Amino acid sequence: MSNRVVVTGMGTVSPVGIGLKDYWAALEAGESGIDRVTNFDAAELDSKVGGEVKDFNAQDYMSRKDAKRMDKFAQFAVAAAKIAVEDSDLKIDDSNAEDVGVLVGSGIGGMETFENQTKRLIERGPGRISPFFIPKMISNMAAGQVSIQLGAKGPNATTVSACASATHAIGDAFDIIRRGDAEVMVTGGSEAAITELSYAGFCAMKALSTRNDEPTRASRPFDEERDGFVMGEGSGILVLESLDSALERGAKIYGEVVGYGMSGDAYHVTAPDPEADGAARSMQMAIDNSGLDLEDINYINAHGTSTPQNDKLETKAIKDVFGDLAYDVAVSSTKSMTGHLLGAAGGIEAIASLLAIEKGVVPPTINYENEDSECDLDYVPNEARELEVKAVLSNSLGFGGHNATLIFAEYQQ
Predict the structure, then answer these.
(1) Residue 253 maps to a domain
(2) Of 163, 182, 192, 218, which residue is the catalytic one?
(3) In 33-123, at which residue ranges do the beta strands (DSSP E only) sit?
């Protein structure tokens, strides 16, 4: 018999707020965290807008010495993890350290470190490269540093599957607890890729929005005038726990993880399958895995990137899976407010999904102004909606054809 898995703590570092209170208040109010990029000079690039984390001080969460030895993506992960563990009221010590694991995804890893050290190599030669270059840059260091900072000695790994990274991490952590290899998993995703090289690369692909004169209106999922995604940064971390462990220590329970699905498009390195088959199979696997009926799921937190292809094909996948019921399900994209956090997106969106269950409110898709005939579902346009949310399906779809889906449900004894 497999263990039931619940969520007992959550932490966010996001463009719309640090910590659950500020994060949820912004989502519920439909407030955008997107503005002109300040991390670097974007004057020569086509896209000049992004969702940057504001007012973040790493030393609020770690020592100055430790902060200097981490790339920003790892700093974000440690901060979000400490917020989540505090929220969970989880104490990690010698008595349980080996039963607490860490699984944190990142699509890109230490891009800022990589870029800065490359410049140093070119300008000053190989002898001036930092000895911390590799341990700051490699993608597993979010999970590694979270483990070190928390003293968590259980299963430890990293998922790198582009924009599906955090969702794969949470799903894999769910499976680890279900099969009894850990009692608790600290899991989610982290990303800090708002750098000149990242932007130049995505601009070369024509993937980013160029609505530079209206930053807060640039991310507009499912809107007919969407012209690309807006990059965000930050981290979303959850504490997953076996139900027995949570009940034994009297932990608060936000909801239960009940389903996980994943698939591959086997189609193209960046373009989604035009039949949306992979996304549909990922959703169907999660639903089958959950034991829920389609009617039980009344909110979908969409991948909803604000790119022309993703939004219409995710819509198609939802209709392929839900049939006529697709028109009765609330669907929204919180990327309209946060931007797209790449490998961390599934982390903050899982948290939005669970808060929707707790609060009885579905966050909106802002900037939805022009209907697209190929995007014809209920996208909760522009204003949050009160709704008794029983179960949420959350999608993440990544370059390389990686699809991942999680289903969270209201906890019932």
Answers:
(1) no
(2) 163
(3) 35-36, 49-50, 100-105
